[in-house]
Specification:
Number of strands: 16
Order of helices and strands: EEHEHHEHEEHHEHHEEEEHEEEEE
Largest sheet: 7 strands, mixed
Distance between the termini: 58 Å
Helix content: 25-40%
Low-confidence stretches: none
Structural class: alpha+beta
Oligomer: single chain
Strand order of the largest sheet: 1-2-3-13-5-15-4
Length: 289
């Protein structure tokens, strides 16, 4: 009997992976998971109930694990190489709070790098009592469905990404210190808007960190970016996951936008996260002066 079975969730995005937690790193299982990730974009392991150790071992078996870097907090969980996601408005580290609050905005992870992470893995320790779903949008499918004329219009455009683009959506009146720390963490970086990848598929470098289009006014750039986000997040391109305790979900980051649906502290939501290092280079990223 096979140790793993994979069942498509819908026509364009997502698949359910059925495997016991103790079998996730058995011989032959990690390659099947990676093949399914590239094919289906989002993999859902329903109530698999992995321990932190199994979670870290699976991450390592799938590829090279990304260091915590900006999110390490010295906790026992962090020392295992896991980022613990819990909304805490009293947190002393404003950067940590901004990371979590910013997750409610459609985004792609790692747009500050020329090689974004390959996959984010999320394990549900405690689901929110209300809200807190995670939604994904298939950028490969969204680009493919664009009219040819629209593809031609955006082919050579370049987009500026920065943390400020997220931050100004979180604060009614950001202060100079806020802009300084955002730019210290993720300064304005230039990328192509259209991302042609090695496997022949094409993605879009859009989402909450996209701040403007090179050579366009701010208003013109926002119209292009917002229009592409609206197009890419139509129901036909999306999958929304309602969390249960023990679920694990991983997604093919270079081909997706994702967001969490709003929830508050009282909901009790706690997630554990690891990230696989990327292998798909955008180009030599240009950090702007």
């Amino acid at each position: 009997m096979s140790k793993i079975t994979i069942e498509p969730a819908n026509e364009r995005l997502g698949a359910f992976v059925h495997v016991a937690a103790e079998n996730v790193i058995d011989a032959g299982v990690p390659p099947q998971i990676m093949d399914a990730l590239n094919r289906y974009g989002v993999l859902i392991f329903p109530e698999v109930g992995m321990t932190d150790e199994q979670f870290v071992d699976l991450t390592g078996a799938l590829g090279e694990k990304h260091s915590l870097a900006n999110t390490a907090d010295g906790s026992e969980t962090s020392n295992k190489g896991i980022y613990r996601i819990e909304l805490d408005s009293k947190a002393k580290d404003k950067n940590q709070l901004d990371y979590i609050r910013g997750n409610d905005i459609w985004h792609m992870d790692g747009t500050s790098y020329n090689i974004p992470g390959k996959s984010t893995l999320l394990k549900c320790e405690r689901p929110a009592s209300k809200g807190g779903d995670t939604e994904f949008a298939n950028l490969f499918a969204a680009y493919e469905a664009l009219p040819d004329a629209r593809k031609a219009e955006i082919e050579d455009l370049r987009v500026i990404h920065c943390l400020e683009a997220i931050g100004v959506q979180l604060y009614d009146e950001p202060e100079e210190d806020d802009f300084a720390r955002w730019n210290a963490m993720f300064p304005p970086t230039e990328h192509p808007l259209v991302w042609h990848q090695k496997d022949g598929r094409t993605s879009l470098l859009i989402g909450g960190t996209a701040h403007g289009i090179v050579g366009k006014s701010y208003e013109e750039g926002r119209k292009i970016i917002d229009g592409l986000i609206e197009w890419s997040t139509q129901p036909e391109f999306t999958y929304r996951h309602h969390w249960a305790k023990g679920d694990m979900v991983m997604f093919n980051n270079p081909g997706l936008l994702h967001r969490s649906h709003p929830y508050d502290e009282a909901s009790g939501r706690i997630m554990h996260r690891t990230t696989l290092k990327g292998t798909e280079e955008i180009e030599r990223a240009k950090e702007l002066a």
